[in-house]
Write a structure and sequence with these properties.
alpha/beta; Aspartate Aminotransferase, domain 1; 2 domains; seven-stranded mixed β-sheet; three-stranded antiparallel β-sheet; 13% strand; binds pyridoxal-5'-phosphate
Length: 404
């Protein structure tokens, strides 16, 4: 029996360059983003300029979390109490949580076999719901046909906010996710593609949205200190009309993010090598369904999903148990009860209950693995072999029920 020894939640250490930058901030005592010397561009403003340049958007605002970025984006776009916000039925709790926080009502859209938003269901619900907003979650890094999606939303006057917590760096054709809709939201929480513990970005090309978002994030009247912000005139009226919701990023986090951002292309390549190695092993098993990655998509393979469509719920449980015995921590989206970071729409009971037969069927046999960069390619090979063994063990134990 093969056993894997690594830790699925172990990220890489913060580099010496990032630690040095953080120590310099600590020694300065100026940790608040607006606590800058005359003419000094603080770490946060520099990070915002660098991120906007890399992302390819006009503006970037750094905030305390991805969840806050989504809330601020929805407020800046004018989501009001009771407004319907379309969103993926398959996502994670911060997404419906952000909609609830701004008083919106989530209307879930089905996903397809490849875990992307189902554009047929989107077109249908765009029509029947009258919604003016879509919070599109690129859940687990799967991008839908963004040209077709934008066409549907433009046709119905729907403003798109992209939740890019899992797609920082991913592209559809040559455009980075987060640059299609009105606003792109990103997370720098430990398990995402940059790690500052907690943190997030909001990106847009729209000067009015970035001005509103800046005041919403808690700039007081110090918005002039955003090196990467719009002209001062953008704030003339807004400063009287926009509440301060205190969600600023601090200089310490920005200091450790800037060296990571400088290295992100290398990280993306390493994630994809890990993904490809594991996917290659799993693809040899005929009962395993891996998402098809369209040619237009440039992914960031920081996690891997697979389905075993023939499995019952008890076989899914047995697979988790057997893989865990062999050191491989798999998550399962089909569990009735929320566990750890994993929950599904039936657990978000502050929102109206909804019927989503396709999503439920797909989630019932959907498994998920993190691929931290601390794993070597050999580790990924071994993880794949462990999963194959575990599949055979489960199949053998259920002799006669199905044949994998
Ligand atoms: C992590 C995550 C977010 C944002 O997370 P924060 O912890 O608030 O930074 C948003 N959407 C999805 C799908 C996520 O996994």
């Amino acid at each position: 029996m093969k056993v894997f020894q690594g830790q699925f939640t172990q990220q890489e250490p913060i580099s010496d360059a990032a630690i040095d930058a953080a120590v310099a901030v600590l020694k300065s005592g100026r940790i608040h983003r607006y606590n800058t010397l005359d003419g000094e561009l603080g770490e946060v403003a520099q990070l915002e300029a660098e991120y906007a340049a890399w992302q390819g958007t006009q503006f970037c605002l750094a905030v305390t979390s991805g969840g806050q970025a989504m809330q601020i984006a929805m407020r800046a776009l004018g989501v009001q109490y009771g407004d319907v916000v379309l969103t993926n039925a398959f996502t994670l709790a911060p997404v419906p949580g952000a909609i609830e926080a701004v008083g919106g009502v989530a209307r879930y859209v089905e996903i397809d076999e490849n875990l992307r938003l189902d554009l047929g269901d989107l077109a249908n619900k765009a029509k029947t719901s009258g919604a003016k907003f879509l919070l599109l979650s690129h859940m687990r890094g799967h991008l839908c046909d963004m040209d077709a999606l934008m066409q549907i939303c433009d046709q119905h006057g729907i403003a798109v906010i992209e939740d890019c917590a899992h797609t920082m760096g991913a592209k559809w054709n040559a455009t980075r996710s987060g640059s299609f809709g009105r606003v792109g939201c990103f997370s720098t929480q430990t398990y995402k593609h940059l790690n500052s513990g907690e943190g997030g970005f909001l990106c847009t090309d729209d000067p009015e949205i970035i001005a509103k978002a800046t005041i919403l994030s808690g700039s007081y009247m110090l918005y002039g200190r955003h090196g990467a912000g719009p002209d001062a005139s953008a704030y003339d009226e807004l400063k009287y009309l926009t509440p301060n919701c205190s969600a600023r990023m601090d200089a310490l986090r920005a200091a450790i993010l800037r060296p990571q951002l400088a290295n992100i292309e290398d990280s993306i390549q390493r994630w994809n090598e890990r993904y490809d190695t594991l996917a290659q092993v799993l693809s040899t098993h005929s009962a395993v369904a891996l998402p098809v990655r369209p040619q237009q998509e440039s992914m960031v393979g920081s996690s891997l999903q697979f389905r075993v469509p023939a499995f019952s719920a008890s076989q899914c449980e047995a697979l988790l148990t057997q893989a865990a015995k062999q050191g491989v921590e798999i998550k399962w989206f089909g569990r009735a009860e929320p566990v750890g970071f994993t929950s599904n729409h039936t657990s978000w009971r502050y929102m109206p209950a909804q019927t989503l037969p396709t999503t439920d069927r797909l989630l019932s046999t959907l498994f998920d693995l993190r691929l931290p960069l601390t794993f070597s390619l050999d580790d990924c090979q071994l993880i794949g072999e462990v999963i194959l063994e575990a599949l055979h063990t489960v199949d053998a134990a259920q002799f006669g029920s199905i044949s994998l």
